[in-house]
Every structure is written in structure tokens, then in C-alpha cells.
Structures
1.
Amino acid sequence: MIWYVLLVAAVAAERIAELVVARRNERWSMARGATVAGQGHYPAMVALHTGLLAACVAEAWLGGRPFLPALGWTMAAVLVAAQGLRWWCIATLGPRWNTRVIVVPGLPLVQGGPYRWLRHPNYVAVVAEGVALPLVHTAWITALVFTVLNAALLTVRIRCENEALAGSWAAPSAPAGDVTA
């Protein structure tokens, strides 16, 4: 069980690293006249993602969830792949990436990296992580509850992001890419 707590702690540390990058990118964006949208749903997103980390450990420990190697190692591989996709998105968007919906007017939409194939690849990573992290240690209730709540939140988030991007497009016919986590 201790290794699972350490895994969840590593994911938490990764999230803190994301917030550091997001803060730096927010300053870059605001210096270029960026606008911020969707601030109403942001606290719910923070609470949900923080709750995921806590619930993973709580369910695995309090529920006496076993580590099932076939499931656990498969989900660990999905988790690693999700982290790789997330950081590919961050690297592709560069200073435009953020955990908030922050858009610099007039910049063309990103069409490289994973955005070449997916409209919102970072959210694919979030969904995969939300399923995989709990299931590494068979915390299936956490995986299920997070997935349902995250689907509702992403419905709001993606609509907000698409509207914000639509108002800033330099080339309206270009496909959109995530600007946030």
C-alpha cells in the first residue's frame, strides 16, 4: 500500500508542477492582453481533482482494495501514457497552456503535436488518468464517481473553452486546440 500512496503523491507533485507552469504562463498571457473565461467552474475543477487524489488513497486503504497485478500494471501503464500525453500538450502549447481558460487574442490556434489529431488531447489525458490512477489499486468507486463528475465538468469546461477560443481566432476556419489543462 505504501507504494500506492507514493504513486498518488507523485501525481500530486506533478499537479503542483503544472500549477507552477500555469502561473508563469498566466503572467506571459496577461502581459499580451489575454482574457480569462470560465472562472466559475475553476474551483469545482480544483476540488474534483484534489478529491480524486485523496479518494484514491482513502478507498484503497479504508476499503481494503487489493492490488490485482493484471489490472494494476495495465492501469499504471495507462497512467504513464496519460502523463506523457499531458506534458506533450503542455510542451506543444508552450506559454499558452494553462489550468485556467486564458486566451491571448489574435494568436492562431495550435495545430501541431497532439492537436493535429485531437481537438482536446489534454482532456483525453485527464479522463485516462481519472480512470487509471484509482484502478491501479482497484479503487473502482473512486474511478466511477470521478468519471461521472468529470464528464459533467468537462461538458462545461469544453463549452467555455470553445467559446473563448472562437472569440479570439485569427483564422476562424482553423481547428481548435486546448488552451488549458
Note: Residues 170-177 have pLDDT under 50 and may be disordered.
2.
Amino acid sequence: MPGGRLTQQERQQIAAGLADGLAYAEIARRLDRPTSTITREVMRNGGPTGYRAELAHRATQQRTHRRRQPIPGGLQAAAQPYGRDAQAVAEYGETLTTVLMTSGLPKMMARVLACLYTTDSGSLTASELAHRLQVSPASISKAITFLESMELVRRESDVRRRDRYVVDDDLWYQSMIRSARDNDQFVETARQGVAVLGAGTPAAVRLENAARFLDFVGESITRAAEQAREVLYATTDTTTDATATASADRGEA
């Protein structure tokens, strides 16, 4: 059934589709499943090049078995605030992790970032992350080092002088600006290539076209990020009020 767990036969069809180079959406269409289901299944079981139907099916059975076992007292999840459904929150965390992996993040880095994003405080210590994700401190340290290098998290000290790892409202702005800087580096290098290869030659024209395209995109990203930055700091009520005000202004016009 489309809403139930994937069967072993469906996993074999997924593996066959990947081998044929089909997109996740096409595999999902053939199985009458949501694309997100196929994406999550593949990314948590080796990725598009490492997916194996038998191993994926066995891993799912093992995860299901672990979920049915009583959780030791020391590992019980804290009660969810705001009346949230703990199981729904956990499943959403997996979905967010899958989306982050699809965008290019390695699995552990994606898990850490998803964990931080789904925490109301937006910050956790390394030990808290290790406890929540049930992984070693070394795994957390490696993931944090990577995420810091990508400017996807920042580090700050709390009152007990412990390092806390934070995702805040400025993260997406900084990420966009970094993307624009990466474009600038390629543009500069591409134009160096034009001089080396000779202006007007096919290879030089190709590089110049790429440089012009990315130059335009980089400027657009920077301009849009600056214009949209205030959205990151707007609360829901503020956004609603601003929308209402804008609507009223249009009505008066």
C-alpha cells in the first residue's frame, strides 16, 4: 500500500531503477509512492551508488526491532514541549536529515544540523548532541568541524564555559553570502583560463560564458540576500501584521 512500509519487492524495484539511472520521482511514480519516501529510503541506506535492496530491507527490520524493545531508563527521550508528538518529531527529524543529505551534506553532518534545527533553543553542547543522536563524541566533533567550516553552525560559550553549537537566524544569510563568494572564486579562475587559452577559442568562450553567468548569479544572490535579511528576524505576528498593513495600503491606493 502507498501509505505502508516498503516491501522487499519494492526495494528491489528501487535498486533496479537506480541501476537504470532513473530519477527518484520516476521511481516513486512507478511504485505509487511519494518521492520523499524514495529519497529517504535511498539516502539512509547507502545513497544512489551504494543502495542494496537486501541490505536496506534487513536494516529496516533491525530498526523496527530496536524500536519495539523497551528503552533503557537513561536513554528515554525527554518529554516534548508544546504538546508535541514525540514520534512525529522524530520522524520529521529523519525527513529533514534526508533533505539535507540530498542537498549534499554527509549523513552525520546532516543529522547534527537537523537535530539543532529541531531544538527550540537552537543550540546544544557536544555531549547533548551525542546523547540525542546516540553516537560517539568523536563523531560529533568531526561533524561540527565540517559544519563550522561551511559556516552552517557557530560556536559560543555558555555560563558554565561549555562550548555550545548554534544555528541562528543569520545562518541562511551567511550561507548565501558564502555561496556568492564561491562563485566569485570560480569567475576569477575562469577568466584567468580565458587569458591562458586565448580569447575567442572554443574553450575560452566556454569559460567566459560560465564566468559571465556566475558573475550575474553571484550579484543577484548577494542583492537578494541583503534585501531578504530582515525576513530572518521577523516573527510570525510581525509578518502577519506587515502583510495586513501592505494589503491595507494597496486598498487605499
Note: The longest strand covers residues 154-157.
